[in-house]
Amino acid sequence: MTIEATQGTAEAVELITLTIDGVEVSVPKGTLVIRAAELIGVEIPRFCDHPLLEPVGACRQCLVEVPDAGNGRGMPKPQASCTLEVAPGMVVQTQVTSEVADKAQQGTMEFLLVNHPLDCPVCDKGGECPLQNQAMSHGRGESRFVETKRTFPKPINVSEQILLDRERCVLCARCTRFSEQIAGDPFIELLERGPQQQVGIADDQPFHSYFSGNTIQICPVGALTSADYRFRSRPFDLVSTPSVAEHDACGSAIRVDHRRGKVMRRLAGDDPEVNEEWITDKDRFGFTWTAQDDRLRTPLVRNEDGELEPASWPAALAAAARGLAAADGVGVLTGGHLTAEDAFAYSKLARVVLGTNDIDFRARAHSEEEAAFLAAHVAATRLTVTYRDLEKAGSVLLVGLEPEDEAGAIFLRLRKASRNGLTVRSIAAHASRGLTKMNGELVATVPGQEAAALDAVQLEADSVILVGERLATSPGAYSAALRLAERSGARLAWVPRRAGDRGAVETGCLPSLLPGGRPVADAEARADLAAAWGVESLPSRVGRDTTQIVEDAAKNRLGALVVGGVEVDDLPDPARAREAIEAAFVVSLEVRENEVTRAADVVLPVAPPVEKAGTFVTWEGRLRPFDAVLSLPASLPDLRVLAGIAEEMGHDLGFRTVAEARAAITETGPWDGQRTAAPDAPVPGAVKLGKGDVVLETWRQMIDDGRGQDGQDKYRATARPAVLRANAATLQAAGIEPGGSATISNKTGSATFPAEVADLPDGVVWVPANSGTNLRSINAGHGTVVQLSGGNA
Amino acid sequence: MTNTVRETLWDPIAGFGVTFRTMFKKVVTEQYPFEKVPTAPRFHGRHQLNRWPDGLEKCIGCELCAWACPADAIYVEGASNTEDERFSPGERYGRVYQINYLRCILCGLCIEACPTRALTMTNEYELADDNRADLIYEKSDLLAPLLPGMVEPPHEMLISDDHHDYYKGKTLPLLPADPAADAKVNPPGAPGEDS
Known about the structure:
The complex is a heterodimer. By secondary structure, chain A is α/β, with parallel strands linked by helices. In chain A, 27% of the residues lie in helices and 20% in strands. Chain A is built from 24 helices and 37 strands. The longest helix of chain A has 16 residues, at 99-114. In chain A, 55% of the residues are buried. Chain B is α+β, with helices and mostly antiparallel strands. Chain B has a domain at 47-169: Alpha-Beta Plaits (2-Layer Sandwich). Chain A binds chain B through residues 121-122, 126-127, 154-155, 230-234, 236-237, and chain B through 60-64, 66-67, 77-80, 90-92, 115-116.
């Protein structure tokens, strides 16, 4: 990560040769002296310098002597090496060879420590503190400062989650630069001057950023801490395990720190190809959901009285197998949170044991067009568009995707690239805050009419189109996106919202798609897979999708359901889904109790990602394997449970562990035969709105009511307020004052939000999908028509 | 091997001579447990978690003792003092404090590590039991007894509103009626501390 950030892979770079501590070194033009020194193994102490932030020279800790600046003349005083670019023939002497540099560094350190409280024993950073470490390596042993230190009342909240101890701050400006340069949320700034200089916020603007947790991690002292982790443990008694974040499809590298079988915190991992060094607050703080009181610990089986009662694993597996074998048809709903290995097990169980293609991972609004799009364009492709490609693209077009809320790592990449001149355009109803921060252009459209907008857009061949899963609710949009990619030569990538979605596509958790992108309808593909799995044949009829599975189960045309990790309120029609799980024999594989487990006949507790190994597949198709953080033998991954059910039913899935499943996936391999045809759905006509009708634009905000964020109230308090946005005319037509309450309603129910004026087209309103009210519970979603009225319903 | 004259004749006499002489010396055997002899004053015995003169705990839950421990015998969890529940001056206190005396080697490195002199050692050496659980001492087992003037936490900071004053040696602002009572209320240092 040293000079790699400035270096392209194929481009020729101009090298500059200089001498550091008597060692000649050649580095690319524009490299800073502090990084050139790293290449020869000299670590110059630093606080403000960060490779991903612009140089600022704030802390002055990295002073070096420059006897020759490359022009034959020396610099008269020690220079900050973090702001000094290399020059040909430059001679630099660091603290290793120069007494001047060493003395200058010790002097700076002494100044920094003058007002730094020696409260290391109570400081969360103690033990992993750059100031502590560098004071030991580059400072004086004894302080000469005997006067009273400056103190501030401590700590103050810059947001509900982030606490600031101002007296510990060394004014390196890493946090303020991060907020401004990386996240684009410049809510914290350096205030006052002289000894009173401090980081602060405006009175009415707390540090509500989706990426605020990163400032804690890059703070070189303990000035910024989280309310969540404050005083919870010390770095030296934590066990750290690298892992992958489970909250979105970005596959961000994280580090999970645990102590005595309990996860204490999560930090950003360092992966230049994926998330660089940043993660979203959801990835950082969303880990307590696995330790809630409603966690399922033991299998449950419904007894003759209709009560769920605890059962042994063998009894529960046998009960599940009996019920599934007796049922007239089984549907499998897998949700979007599974690892690829687990999804593969569901897929194989459905095909080999249950003999059906009635399997669908889409526990959300979906369409046949989407399935065709996934089969034609997404399945069995890998890394056709990567994060790096986003940075290098000429322009990026977002359709049905709000990266700031739905894919934080993509947002940060796009924002970084937009600062270097990338044009970001978004086909949406209004310019969201995320789009504004990316300096993006809005291609205004009415929700549901994305197809027409896509057909009208002109793109260069070096562009990238990112389509979100929301397009499933917009007829013709996927087809139009494919047409646009074809027409312009731009590359097209699908960005789902959940971590397991792409893996589920690859492992065939779709009614029309077998593992490895093999189309069900293709006899050759079925034969290929049957041979790979060593079975006679595979079901040839294209299966039912989520809606049909739910519908048929509710009508008793499908006898049983295997449900893994699905919330009823996420499904397209929650009311129908409730009828379905009441009517059918339900085997539920869940981490925590929910509506499905309460209605299920057999409940099998499974391990959350932190307790099992697995692989998430990112939106790019990149495999992100991870190991179990906590080793709990009683916590079984879904695939082990499914293997048990299969064995009870007289079949062998061929794997019982994650490692075996990985081998089985590799062995199955991707399909290299004929792909299915791309969908070609027609562009829909404009929707005619009745009086009081509006079209909904909606997506889930990053911090919302999702159960993956349970147990993190302080983090949730930093959520953006749930508001209804519409233009002034639309609000006026419904008789709503800006700031007053607005209600959207339909036959199923209603939801009320404070109204806010924004640049939406007439007759379109935006509301968050799951903040306060889960819109699906009132059967509303992106592109649905609802009634808008003033006041509370 | 052949024995020399010295070995066969003189050595037994010399040996029994030691026995004979000892019969007239003072007995060194200690009649423990019937008579308990005081240890050396700086003997490393059971630990004690000390208190400030107002009864608040000195431990801030920093875990430096646990870090210093070569036997991994100490387990600490810190937590925040709140407005309603204050156990120590300042922001942080030790919510959980355990010493496992099956592991402890009584080396005293934890005492050296403690930044607030919360942890010291007493001279109590009777650390034996017949089960594991009872040998893991909890915070309640280790805390120093309340002396006169001390109040069981949680309570407000009684000495000063500024926790720095505790470390500067400020004591209770009590003004008892007679100086004799004053001496009782404010003894110079808790027992075991700095022994």
